[in-house]
Design goal:
CATH class of the largest domain: Alpha Beta
Largest sheet: 6 strands, parallel
Oligomer: single chain
Shape: globular
CATH architecture of the largest domain: 3-Layer(aba) Sandwich
Radius of gyration: 21 Å
Order of helices and strands: EHEHEHEEHEEEHEHHEHEHEHEHEH
Helix content: 25-40%
Strand order of the largest sheet: 3-2-1-12-13-14
Number of strands: 14
Distance between the termini: 39 Å
């Protein structure tokens, strides 16, 4: 009989729209997520890590949770409940032209017929949502929609019709971001779309408390040569929807803590809570988000990977380098996600990480 170590549920964060060398492109962090999932047995991460446009990777050890849902989870406001299947409602922006909308419907029907996903109903917003794109002073991307009420109303219709998760497809502006898109395709810039995508999915999750992910609708780009391999997943299809549908198909339910407290716990014996979290993995310079700060506050070990984007909120900026040294809250530095996987294995096996380092100091 083999004896296996218990899983070490861990959280992988690579914030969207900040240009990380790994995770700043079209699903290029999937190999890293796979090795971390193998090391921990249970990895929680967000769509930015797993969405590779026409490509995807389904792994039962990976829990696909939208960023606002992760913030709620790390704050202790919700539990995550793994599921076998979600019923995915499709939410279309009225601004998408008929031909491009049909391409997305073809993807939905292909995922239904070929992958067996439960997709539907389909709702279109009352008017064009008016997506806009912006860039912050740091160089990170952000944006939003001019008519969020229309977005939320369409989401309500889907939930009322039985959808347990929502895939949002909105028309993205193309005229004013040609230079930034070309820079991104060459692997030299920040993804100009992802910041606005995050805002859209955050709105749905905050309002409806169900899983959500977003796919931008854009006209196909003319072929270009010598593109960065990290962007090529977005070059091989008409839409970015396939990975979104696969990710949402088994995204965990977001269960409010109050609901569990007032219900027989036996109904929720498979929940994941912040108290179960064994580690959080985040890029150097991107430690200022709500989830990382909540994990630090709750003494969850933090593994900082040298995968720096345009942000500069690091260990020194947060003044936690002394905490890392005196051992009150482990803050571990990894040069790569390979090394992070090794650190996670050490934590999972109950090995003192300092005992693996040389030179090694005596206990006293």
């Amino acid at each position: 009989m083999s004896i296996q170590s218990p899983v070490l549920p861990s959280l992988l964060l690579i914030p969207t729209g900040i240009g990380c060398p790994i995770g700043g492109y079209a699903g290029d962090a999937i190999p890293s997520a796979r090795i971390l999932a193998a090391a921990t047995g249970c990895l929680i991460t967000h769509p930015n890590v797993m969405n590779a446009a026409s490509l995807y990777w389904n792994d039962n050890r990976i829990q696909y949770v939208e960023g606002y849902g992760i913030d709620l989870f790390t704050s202790g406001m919700i539990y995550l409940q793994p599921v076998r299947q979600q019923k995915i409602g499709l939410l279309f922006d009225r601004g998408i032209d008929n031909q491009l909308r049909e391409r997305h419907m073809q993807v939905a029907n292909a995922c239904y017929a070929s992958l067996g996903l439960d997709i539907g109903p389909v709702v279109t917003t009352e008017k064009s949502l008016g997506v806009f794109l912006r860039q912050g002073p740091s160089g990170s991307s952000w944006g939003g929609v001019e008519y969020p009420d229309c977005l939320l109303k369409a989401g309500e219709k889907l939930k009322d019709a039985g959808a347990t998760a929502v895939a949002v497809v909105t028309k993205f502006p193309e005229e004013n971001n040609i230079a930034s898109v070309e820079s991104y395709r060459m692997g030299k810039g920040v993804d100009p779309l992802s910041g606005a995508e995050a805002v859209i999915s955050h709105l749905i999750v905050k309002h409806l408390s169900i899983p959500c992910a977003h796919a931008p609708a854009m006209s196909s780009l003319p072929i270009s040569y010598n593109l960065d391999p990290r962007t090529m997943a977005e070059e091989i299809g008409y839409t970015f929807l396939p990975s979104v549908l696969v990710g949402l198909s088994r995204a965990p339910n977001l269960v409010p803590v109050d609901k569990v407290i007032h219900t027989r716990r036996g109904l929720y014996n498979d929940l994941l809570g912040i108290e179960d979290l064994g580690a959080v993995i985040a890029p150097q310079g991107a430690l200022g988000g709500a989830s990382v700060l909540a994990c630090i506050e709750k003494d969850v070990p933090v593994i900082v990977v040298l995968n720096k984007g345009v942000l500069d909120v690091d260990v020194e900026a947060l003044c936690i380098e002394d905490i890392a040294l005196n051992g009150q809250r482990p803050v571990l530095i990894a040069s790569s996600y390979f090394e992070a996987a090794g650190l996670l294995l050490g934590l999972r096996e109950g090995i003192s990480i300092s005992s693996l380092c040389r030179p090694i100091a005596p206990i006293v």
